[in-house]
Amino acid sequence: MQIYLDHSATTPPRPEAIAAMEQVFTRQWGNPSSIHGWGERAAIALETARLQVAALLNASPEAIVFTSGGTEADNLAILGVARHYQRPQHLIISSIEHPAVSEPARFLESQGWQVTRLPVDRLGRVNPADLAAAFRPETVLVSILYGQSEVGTLQPIDQLGTLCRDRGVLFHVDAVQVAGRLPLDVQQLPVDLLSLSSHKLYGPQGAGALYVRPGVDLIPLLGGGGQEFGLRSGTQPVPVIAGFGVAAALAAQEMAAESLRLQGLRDRLFDLLADCPDLVPTGDRLHRLPHHVSFCARHTDGEMLSGKTIVRQMNLAGIAISAGSACHSGKTVPSPILKAMGYSDRLAQSAIRLTLGHSTTLADIDWTATVLRQVLARLTPPLSLTAL
Q: Is the pTM for the entire model greater than 0.85?
């Protein structure tokens, strides 16, 4: 029995997306900037995808800039704003951002920018009052992720964005984990820039998009032919963008029912493991991605139990999950996200994440809970009160 529960890492491309890619590869393979028939056919595929992605966000198509993925979209948003300023300014992010945001922020810091990293509570939520207190006269941009990939927590984007808008500060949202799973309406959300990624919503890898609110000015990161409204030069990879568009259109059609189905499976998995003494749930159960389940494994005074060890044992049983901790130079390190949430190094090293998707069934959830209990029973000696 093979069960894939790592949909926050990547999702399998839908057959309809693959079919759209094959159509472009065989019949619409021209350069979309060319004005002959081959180019026009490619341009039609490109602009159809732009309409489809825009519809997912209730945006105008001209506000969608295609990129190579969520990482490039985040970088374009942050550095595209920053490059307007000859003198360093002030940037605000949260303390639990994806590296696609935290690393550009670190780069700007090395160039003299001031960066404020907002704290989060034990559940991983930013307090809007902390953002309100962090603004300075030189604050030009706030970047906060919507759904945290490791612990599943959703941020109060409406409140945070309203604070930014009231002060005339640009607001960027990394919505990579949310797009296609929860509604995103940029006509209602107070956001100026929003990032998303194809392969998180059953499209192909290698495509993403940045929503740029009309009137927001970015300086591009790449010099070249001026494609994508001058913001992302380079001949567009039309096949993967076409697949992205089809996946976005299907996500928009199915989102309401699928989100409720996944929430039910998510909550069942949490409930089935609620009495497991070896597991500590992480993140916010109320404000949470609909497909996301995450835990830390408790330690004893003996050998450290890492999330990677649990992942390997689950993989041997045919179940794919992921570890919450990152691996650098072959060494497992405590999750910086969980440390920012107040967890100890020992617990933060044992994080695991199970993320559900279209193929996940009730039987998958029940079997996964059984296997995870068996794995933990083998790996974890009896818990002692002094071990916590």
A: yes
